[in-house]
Amino acid sequence: MRRWRELIIDTWGALAYKPAFRAAVEGRSTRLPGPAGASWVPEADRRRLAAYTILAAYDSNQAAALLGEEGDDRREYGDASVVIDQTLSHLLGETQQITVEGVDDDATAQDREALLREWASGEHLWMRMQHAERNSVLLGDTVYLLAWSRAKGRPVLKTIDPGFYFPVLPDGAIDADEYPHRVHLAWEVPDDPATGREGTLRRVTYELGPISDDGSATRTYPWASRPSALTCYLTDAEWDLDQLDKSGDIDALSLRRARFRTNADGEVLNRLDLQVDFIPIVHVPNTIGAEHFGQSSLLSAAQLLDDLAAADTDSQRASATTGSPIIGLSGARLPVDRNTGQPLPVRVEPGMVWPLGDSGQLSTVDMSAQLAELREYVETLRERLSVVTRLPGSVLGTVSPAEVPSGYALQLSFGPLHAMVRSMRLAREAKYPLLLKMVQRLYQLGGVLPSGENHRATIAFGPYLPTDLSAALELVARGVQAGVLSLETGVRILVDAGLPIEDAALEVARLREFPTAVTQRGDSDGNTPV
User: Which pLDDT belongs to residue 116?
Assistant: First the structure.
């Protein structure tokens, strides 16, 4: 009797058709590298880690390796990587810029914006964001970690592989507006034969808890107006892999066998009080959803990518038989081996001549028709990939913009992409302001910024579609001249259009200081200059 698989509908259910995914989830022997089946991994996280590994295999053209011997000659031409790179490019837009509310008319906000931009430059934020957001698009999640550096005098930023991220969620779920009170960053350190070091498990834990055991102690943080009884504790420990408690997952490991690490100041990292009332970790999901974790942009196209790889493989095989056709000979005098007297293998080479007898025949098998059908099938799959991933053919490179009948038709083809990018940016709308809020609080903790409420800052993503700069300039010029647009709004429009304006407030000041074509034209027309 056939055994039916249990149907689990969740974020990673689209990969349930893969035997390697099911084996990792069930804890059976698997070809998947990584800790998905390790004893310390919570059962609820096995599906997530197995999905991460499979998705990474697609990105690196190694998904066929999960098929075993059947995948040895499978062709993979980088379609998955193209989908990820193009999705990432449109998500982030042409530019990224830190903006602070009230910067147009508040000197304090202007100073705060300048500080945050200086911090972003020092921490290579835009480069780190490219790496982090690519993980988010590919895997469904990415993680940022912040810490105060006394040596640098500023917060330092790290991007964390989401496979190391293990939040302790109440009842296995959490609302989008809530935040876990305990987060583990955990990974295995492999054996080192050169030094004889055995493999270990390292776990870094951030946990919110009372300042004192009885909860009576309070502390007033520089960013708060009222005392708080909470603080964040840091624990950095490691265990020998062969001594792990097989019955405990990452959140239940016994500290009796743990070795605690120390920081640069020699402090033992066992519930070290960080003097902050928040966990300095920001998890960024790729999509909007009720669950804590996001969904990869490849998940819905996984089976399609498999079919495309199979079709490419069949097309390559058919191309080989078309270029070197199968030939049948009869009545030909073929060369023989002088030692054995057996006919030698016949090779088809340019200039080859075979003498045929009176009844001799030569026939070939024409596979060109099948090759044409396979190529048409491949193109059909690529069109389906464009639909499923919501990336128009002009973005994936399957359609030349010159082949589009009109600009209006091209604009319509970007409709699904526009909706996707808008949804993905909405999923990040609260995350980057949270990251910059933590940066400001750490600056307050280090004494760089004064106490008090911080300005709301965010990261503005630039346009992701080609913009008609001439039309934008004309619009702003006419709007400002007619008095229906302020100069500040006009500059913002130009920034969104993709003009290389690094500081909108400074650009407005420059325009007010020096006469512009708009003001000069207003004077010549007898209108009131701006």
Answer: 97
